[in-house]
Automatic annotation (TrEMBL), chain A:
Keyword Transport appears in the UniProt entry: yes
Family of the protein in this entry: Belongs to the binding-protein-dependent transport system permease family. LivHM subfamily.
Bilayer topology: Multi-pass membrane protein
Native source organism of the sequence: Actinomadura rubrobrunea
GO molecular function terms attached to this record: transmembrane transporter activity
Protein name according to UniProt: Branched-chain amino acid ABC transporter permease
Record key words, sorted: Amino-acid transport, Cell membrane, Membrane, Transmembrane, Transmembrane helix, Transport
InterPro entries, alphabetized: ABC_transp_permease, BCAA_transport_permease
UniProtKB/TrEMBL annotation, chain B:
GO MF annotation terms: branched-chain amino acid transmembrane transporter activity
PANTHER family linked to this entry: HIGH-AFFINITY BRANCHED-CHAIN AMINO ACID TRANSPORT PROTEIN BRAE, HIGH-AFFINITY BRANCHED-CHAIN AMINO ACID TRANSPORT SYSTEM PERMEASE
Subcellular localization: Cell membrane
Protein name as it appears in the record: Branched-chain amino acid ABC transporter permease
InterPro entries documented for this protein: ABC_transp_permease, LivM-like
UniProtKB/TrEMBL annotation, chain C:
Signal peptide limits: 1-24
Name this protein carries in UniProt: ABC transporter substrate-binding protein
Pfam families reported for this sequence: Peripla_BP_6
InterPro entries named among the record's database cross-references: Leu-bd (IPR028081), Peripla_BP_I (IPR028082)
Species: Actinomadura rubrobrunea
Stretches for region Disordered: 410-439
Superkingdom of source: Bacteria
Residue ranges of every copy of the Leucine-binding protein domain listed in the record: 46-388
Similarity comment text for this entry: Belongs to the leucine-binding protein family.
The gene coding this protein: livK
Keyword flag Signal: yes
Keyword annotations from UniProtKB, A to Z: Signal
Amino acid sequence: MVRFVNLTLAGITSGMVFATVALALVLIWRSTRIVNFAQGGMLMVTTFLAWTVVDAGGSYWVALAAALASGLVLGAVIERVVIRPVEDKPPLNAVIVTLGLFVLLQAGAGMVWGDTPHSYPPAFGIRGLSVGGTRLLLSPNDLFVIGAVGAVMIALTVLFVRTDLGLRLRAAAFAPEIARLLGVRVGRMLTLGWALAALVGSLAGVLIAPSVFVGPTQFDAVLVFGFTAAVIGGLDSPVGAVVGGLLLGCALSYVSGYLSSDLVTLGALAALIAVLLVRPNGLFGATTGRRV
Amino acid sequence: MIGTTRQAAAPARAAERARLALGRYRLVRHALGAAAALVALYALTSAVSPYRDLQIAQAAYLTCAVAGLTVLTGLGGQISLGHGAFMAVGAYTTALLLNHRSWPLAAVLAAAVVVTAAAGTAVGAVAARLHGPYLAGATLAFAVGLPGLANYEPLLDLLGGQNGLSVTPPVPPAALGETFPVERWQAWIACLGAVLTLFLLANLVRGRFGRTLRATRDDEIAAALHGVRVARVRIIATVVSAACAGLAGGLLAVATTLAAPGAFPLALSLQLIAAIIIGGLGSLAGAVWGALVLVFVPAWASDLAQSADLSHNIASNLPLALYGLVLIVVTLVFPRGIQGGLRAARTALARRRSPRDDAAHEEAAPHDTAARDTAVHGGDS
Amino acid sequence: MKRPRLARATAALTALALAASATAACGSGDGGGGDRASAPGVTATTVTIGSHQPLTGPAAPGYSANSAASKAFFDYVNANGGIHGRKIVYKYVDDVYNPTQTVGVVQKLVLQDKVFAIFNGLGTPTHSKVVGYLNAQRVPDLFVASGCGCWDQPDKHPYTFGWQVDYVREGKILGEHVRRAFPGKKIAYFYQNDDFGQDGVKGLDKYIPASQVVTRQSYQPGGTDVSAQVQAIAQSKADVVVLFTIPTYTALFRLAALKLGYSPQLVVSNVGSDPVTLTGLLESYAKRGGTKVKGSPLIQGIITDAYLSAPGSDDSWIRLFRKIHQQYIPQLPFNGNIIYGMSVAYTFVQALQAAGPNPTRKSLIEALEKSQFRGPGLVPFAYSKQSHAGYIGAQIGVIKGDTVVLQGQPLTTDAGDGPIRPYTGGQPEAPANGIPPQG
C-alpha cells in the first residue's frame, strides 16, 4: 500500500512537471497554431540564465524573476524574428523553424555554459513529509510545484475564457483575417501569445531544474513527455494539459514501479494510443465537426 | 481533381486507352530516368574515394526514407515524426536475418520491407483517425518508445540491448576483383535501393493512387463524397511510406553494418521530416536534396569547426549550431524547399526568355494546397 | 506539363556527382613527408591520431571533457619537443553517441584523414561497431574509453587495446570489499541497464552471496525519474546499496533517498563517484546563498574504487595535471574526467615512444605487447601478447571532503574467476618535466 501511495505521489510530482511544459505548448498552440519544438530549448536557456543568477549569489526568487523576464523577452523576440516570416507559410515550415531553433539554442547553451550539468536549488525543502511515521515521496517543494502549476492553469483558463485579451488572442489564432477586420491587431496578439508561452515555459524550467539538473540536453526527456501530456489532454485546453500530465506521470510511475523501468517510453506510447483511440483530439480537445 | 477526371471520361473506352498509353509512356520515361540515374551513380561511385562512397550510401538510404515520408506527408497530408522507428524495424530485421540465416541479401532486404510494412499497417490503422498535432504526438511517442524494446529483458539476448547488433559487411562478388572496395559495393547496393524506390514511387504518385491521395489531403470530405475511402487510402500511404523506411533501415544496416537503439534516436525522425521540408514538400527530387543536406551539411560543418582554432566548448557545439542555422535559413529563404527554389528560378529564367509563354511554364503547383492543410496544422475549428 | 519527378531526381543526383568528383579531385593529397613518413598519418614532423567522442547530445555531459584533456596533454608534450621530434595532432570528432555516426566518423578519420591510430574512442555501443573495421584495416585501436571486457580479444582483434579497468574486475573488487565489510547485511543493486551496469553486476555477484542481495533495480540513461526504483530499494530496507551509475544518476539516487529519509551505506563504482562532479550536482542542496562548499555533505563516506589519483589528492601526478590544466583548459572544471583524459594521453605518449623513431602501425602494437608501462595508475596494465586488457585492478577508497581517501592496498584480479590479490609495486612518481622517460 505504501508502495502504491508513493508511486502515485511520484507520478503526481513528475506529472506536474510534464504539465508545466504541456501548458507552455498549449499556450503557443492556442495563440499561433504551431507546435513549438523550440520550447525545450527556450526554457533551457532561461533556466541557465536563472542558474547564472543563483551561481552569482542571487536568491531563488531573484533568479526566478530573471527567468520569467528573460522568457517573456525571448518569446517575443523569437516570434518577431523567425516565426513571423513563416506564419503565412505552410505550418510544417514553422515546425522545421522551431526545430532548427531548438538545435541552435542547445548548441548555443553548450558554447556558453558547457556540457556539464549543474545543480539547481529547490524553492523549499526536498525531504518528504511524514505521515504516521512513514516518509512519503512528497516534499514541501513538490507541494510548491503542484501549487504553482495549478495557479498557472487557473490563470490561463481565466485569461482565455473570461478576459477580452484572451478573446482577442484566440481570435487572432483561429481566424486571423476576421479578427483583423474586427480591429484586432493580429501581429501584436501573436507576439504576445509567444511571449506568454515562453513565460510559462521559463517557469516550468525553474520548477523542473532541481530534479533534472541544468544542462543543454537535460530537458529533452521532459519536453517529449510534456508534448505527450499535451496531446493526451487535448492541445486546446490548459486543464487538459494538467490532467494529461498527471495521467502520464502516474502511468509512467506505475509502469516503472510494477513492470520494468525499461518499458517507460513504451508505456508513454501505450497511454497515448489508448487515449487517442477513444478520443482522437485528446481528453479535453474540442470534438470538431467539419463543415463542407 | 477526381471530379474533372470523371467528367472528362465521357467516351470511357477512348479515355481508358489514352490513359493506358500515357501510363506506358510515363513508365518508359521513368525507366529511362532510372537507368540514367544508375549510370550517373556508377560513374560517381567509381570516381570517388571510399569515404565518399560511404557518404553516398548514407545519402542513398536516407533518400529512401525521405522519399517515402514525402509521399505520406507531402502528398497525403499525414505528418509522421516516427519514421526513424520504422527504419529501426527494417535495420533490426536485416541484421537478425543476416546474422542467423544465410539468405541472399536481396531476400533479406525484401523481408525487411515486408516486416516494416506490416508494422506500418498497425501504425496506419491508428494514425488514419488522427490529425495534426495529435498525429504528430502519437508518431513521436512511437519514435521514442519503440527503440526501448531492445532493452526489454526477455528480448535482451535477441536484440542485443543497448549495444545492439553488429552485422558482417557484405562481400563484393568475386567477379569485381580482389581489390574492389567494400564501401563502393555498399554504395551500389544502397543506390540501387534508392533508385528503385524513387522509380516505384514516381509511378505510384503520378498514377491513380497519387491522385486519390492528393484528393484526401486537399479536402477529406469532398474526397469521401466522391467515393474515396479516406481511411483506407491513408493506411495504404502509411504502409508504402513505412516500407520505404524499412528498406532505408535495411540499407543502413548493410552500409554501416549495425543495428542499435542509439542509431535511431528521436533526432533521426525529426531530421527526416526536416529533410522533406528543406528539399521541397511532396517532391521526390526534393527528397534527394533533403537527404543530401542531412549527410553533407553536418560533415561540412564538422570540418569547418575542426579547421578553426576554437575553444573546446565552442568547437564541440559549432557543427550543431550551423546545422540549426541551415534549417532555419533554408526554410525562411526557400519556403517551398530547395526543389521549389530551383523551380522558381527556372520559371523566372524561362519567363525572361519568352515572356509570352508564361502560361505554358506555369506549374500547377500542388504544393500550396499541399502545405496548407498538412499535418501539424489542425485547421478545423 | 511537369518534367517527370524521376528526371528531376536524376538531375539532382548528377549535380551531386559533379560536386563530389570535384571535392574528391582536390582532396587526394597525402601530405607525404619524405622517408620519415614511416606509416599512414606519420610525417617527418607530425603523428596524426583520431577519435570519436560524444561532444554533444545526451552522453556529452562529463565525457566531452575527456578529449579536451587528452588534447591539452598532447599540446603540452608538443610544446616540450614532441615525441622523436614529431608533434601529435589529435583530431577528435563528435559522434553524438550514435553508432551510425561513429561508423562515419571513424571511416573518415581512417580513409580521408589517414590517421595513424584511433585513440580512446568512447562508448561500448558506439565503438563495438567499428572494432571489426579497424582490425580489418589494421589500424591500431588504442585505449578504448569503455570498461567492456570485449576489447581484450587479441586473437580476434589484434589491433584493439583496452585501457581503463574493466567493469567485471571492478565489480569483483567492490563485491569482495562489500562481502568482507558488511557480512550478513542486506544489499541492494542499482545499475545502468547496459554493459556498464550488467558487467559490473556480474563482477559483484562473483563475491556477494545471492542470499544477501534483497533487490536489483536498474535504470535507462535518458529517462529522468528514478524515484520508483529508489523507493523499491528503500522498501527492501537494504543496509548497503551498490551503484553502477553515471554521476547524474548517483546524484539522482542520493536526492531521492534524501526525500525518503533513507540513508544506506553507498558503494559507487569509479565512473559514478567523482567527488568534484557529484559536489557540483548536489551543490544546491548543501548551501544557502553563495558560499561554495568543499565536498557536498551528501556524498561523505561513499565507498568507491579508483585506479588513478583522485582530483583532490596531492601527489606528483595531480600537480602535473593541474599545471597543464591551468595552462591549456582552465575554463573546464578539474575533475575525474580531466585526470582520465590526461592519463590516457600519457599512456599513448609512452606507447609512441616505445614504437621507435620511425613508428609503424605494427611497431606500435608490438611495443605495447612488450610494454611494462607504469604511469599515473595505481596498478599495472595487463598488456602482453596474450592480453589486451588495460588496468588490472583498483583500490578501495572513501569520499572525504572533495577527494577520495584510499584504503588498504591496490588490488588486482582478472575478468574471470581468478582470485583478488594485493599489488605492492606502488605508484611511481610523475617525471619532473611531465614527459615519460625514454625507453
